Amino acid sequence: MWRLPGVRAALRGVRTAVERRSRTEAASETSVGAMERAVVRCVPSEPKLSLSFALADGSHKNMQRDQSEPLGRALSRIATNALKGHAKVAAAKKSRKNRPNAGSGPVVKLYYREEAVAEDVLNVDAWQDGAVLQIGDVKYKVERNPPAFTELQLPRYIMAGFPVCPKLGVEFGDPTGSLFRWYKETKPRAAEPQGGGPSSSSPSSPSPGWTETGVDERVYTPSNADIGLRLKLHCTPGNGQRFGPSRELESVCPVEAGPGTCTFDHRHLYTKKVTDDALIRTVSYNILADTYAQTEFSRTVLYPYCAPYALELDYRQNLIQKELTGYNADLICLQEVDRCVFTDSLMPALEAFGLEGVFRIKQHEGLATFYRKSKFSLLSQHDIAFHEALQSDPLHKELLEKLALYPSAQERVLQRSSVVQVSVLQSTKDSSKKICVANTHLYWHPKGGYIRLIQMAVALAHIRHVSCDLYPGIPVIFCGDFNSTPSTGMYHFVINGSIAEDHEDWTSNGEEERCNMSLSHFFKLKSACGEPAYTNYVGGFHGCLDYIFIDLHALEVEQVIPLPSHEEVTTHQALPSVSHPSDHIALVCDLKWK
């Protein structure tokens, strides 16, 4: 009889001897002679463990039991409440010789290393990985905390030519250690009344008919031949050593035709491959937050020329994912990122293409910075909100004293919720190479020039602290939507290193909010992509608002990826459109270490 005292050593032994199934075996759930599976989820932070297994009649049983409960009670509950299916099957069998307790139902036992586990052992210690649960004639191999999907979802809109990346949540595993296999319908079928979702059919289910696509990666890009067909994803969670129960997911809608040529298609011709280690391909892009795109004001006033469906998040996400992944970038700085877009769309899509990201919320939306994992690792983050840093950080004491002389202006500045996201990255190839990547979205109002000047002064002082005091001498890349054209005081301040107290932007909102002061900063910065005619093109305005500022002491520009032509931008009058997901245009350039 196996008892509690040896459980810890036995657990260590069974973990080192855990069954290592091959990928082929993991994908096959019904191999001949395979033992049934009983999955146990048991984590220290939760009072209960869960136990799930299939009954003899094909139904599935899920149980929740206290971790501190004696095993005997759990086995008794299984015997009395969960074995009706087994009893029915057993009753139909003709041979019942030598079966103990035949009149009271099947015997239920738990074995570990071929010894019965004592019924007074607590559940938390009894249900070990590799144990065997026996219910009548049926044996189940216990798998404790195997990799499992906590979330699995396909996008609602799936279009030919656009990558499909499932949203995944994996417990005790990770997407890179998991297996994927994509199927498509053999022929179109009528839409189901209740829509799609996790499929209850097996991979061999004859209806509907499915055929393999030949793709066994996380991301699948449908072709025109897939139009009108639904997709199915068969996936098995893993962690590099073991695999958990597989799941299947069918798309809600069939693959649709794409919008034709997009504004970024020609740009992708310049970015077909990831750059070599000497280069840093950098992207800055305001992707238009869904919280702003999906309003009546946006549909009727800001973007009345844009087809309503092209403003829907599910549609725009397809375009954003394809555009970003097609740049094969090493750094991506995004503005106007909804939290749900970051977690549900951008993270899984860009992760599948080798990037990792961090997010900083502003108010209704925020900033996201992604970096290529093969080139960089994240050393530290130093994000700030301008209004908070200005009031509390001694670094900005002198600036705050200047601003305090103008109470009306100070009040307006401190009301703004803008933030700057600052990440320090280290090269994975050369640990001596580090870089400070800053990302921001300055105050938007056309009359807020003086506010943007103050925000930029705070940002640059903070970035200097990070790049000079915390990490002395590391170069800076500063991306963002600065809401400032090249003729503004903000741009003059950045490029020239100073701004005079009599500059017109100090009275950008009239005499009542005047706040004249002179400012200077330490850096020598350059706009890597120059001064394009516009990076924002809407019905009532077009101009250059976005920049990638680089440290001229340490970085130089290798190439700038051409922006879309004016004809491409205005094909559907303005942006956004059915072929472009935002009202801004991404800036893309290849930078080189000096």
UniProtKB/TrEMBL annotation:
The name this protein goes by in its record: 2',5'-phosphodiesterase 12
Top-level taxonomy: Eukaryota, Metazoa, Chordata, Craniata, Vertebrata
Organism, scientific name: Bos mutus (wild yak)
Endpoints of the signal sequence: none
GO biological process, one term: nuclear-transcribed mRNA catabolic process, deadenylation-dependent decay
Molecular function via GO: metal ion binding; poly(A)-specific ribonuclease activity
Primary localisation category: mitochondrion
Domain annotation Endonuclease/exonuclease/phosphatase: ranges: 284-584
PANTHER family, A to Z: 2',5'-PHOSPHODIESTERASE 12, CARBON CATABOLITE REPRESSOR PROTEIN 4
Catalysed reaction equations from the record: Exonucleolytic cleavage of poly(A) to 5'-AMP
Similarity field: Belongs to the CCR4/nocturin family.
Domain 2',5'-phosphodiesterase 12-like N-terminal: 146-256
Superkingdom of origin organism: Eukaryota
GO cellular component: mitochondrial matrix
Residue intervals passing through the bilayer: none
EC id: 3.1.13.4
Subcellular compartments: Mitochondrion matrix
Keywords noted in UniProt: Exonuclease, Hydrolase, Magnesium, Metal-binding, Mitochondrion, mRNA processing, Nuclease, Phosphoprotein, Transit peptide
Comp. bias intervals (Low complexity): 199-209
Region of interest: Disordered: 188-216
